[in-house]
Task: inverse folding
């Protein structure tokens, strides 16, 4: 596992991202999900690179703390943990489509939780040992914004729980 993560880190520096937790998460069903996934899959993800001063200008202080300083909002305080509307969650920093409301579920944790990203190319994952325990951090594939963490205690079939910070997301309602 350690070699896989080191390889992932090396490839990430070259702009090539691989998943360290899973290789793909199948979509449950539906033409709309496939169309949404296709938008990200067919896009060439050019990196968004800004100075910290530029990020501070476009993000609120809370958003900056979460996405640039790898912070975490307090549980049950974020804008989207209770949201049940249909739509798509975008990266608050660069606008990339990240998660569909079709994969959102109530985890009881106080943060928006999803079973899968909208596309395996929309996020990348890195090992995180910041709290003395190993976790898997989820970042935006385009701008490297910290989004949250993924855990292996989610619902079937994939068993994954993408636990995201509302401050890292921007919701777009869709029918």
Result:
């Amino acid at each position: 596992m350690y070699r896989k993560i080191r390889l992932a880190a090396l490839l990430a520096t070259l702009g090539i991202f691989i998943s360290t937790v899973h290789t793909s998460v199948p979509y449950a069903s539906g033409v709309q999900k496939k169309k949404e996934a296709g938008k990200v899959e067919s896009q060439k993800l050019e990196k968004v690179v800004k100075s910290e001063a530029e990020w501070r200008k476009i993000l609120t202080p809370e958003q900056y703390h979460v996405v640039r300083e790898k912070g975490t909002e307090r549980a049950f305080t974020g804008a989207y943990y209770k949201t049940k509307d249909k739509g798509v969650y975008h990266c608050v920093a660069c606008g990339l489509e990240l998660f569909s409301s079709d994969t959102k579920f109530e985890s009881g944790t106080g943060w928006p939780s999803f079973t899968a990203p909208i596309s395996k190319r929309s996020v990348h994952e890195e090992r995180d040992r910041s709290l003395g325990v190993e976790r898997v951090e989820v970042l935006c594939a385009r701008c490297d914004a910290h989004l949250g963490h993924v855990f292996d205690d989610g619902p079937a079939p994939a068993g994954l729980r993408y636990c995201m910070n509302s401050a890292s997301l921007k919701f777009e309602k869709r029918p």
Summary: Helices lie at 2-13, 31-42, 52-58, 61-67.
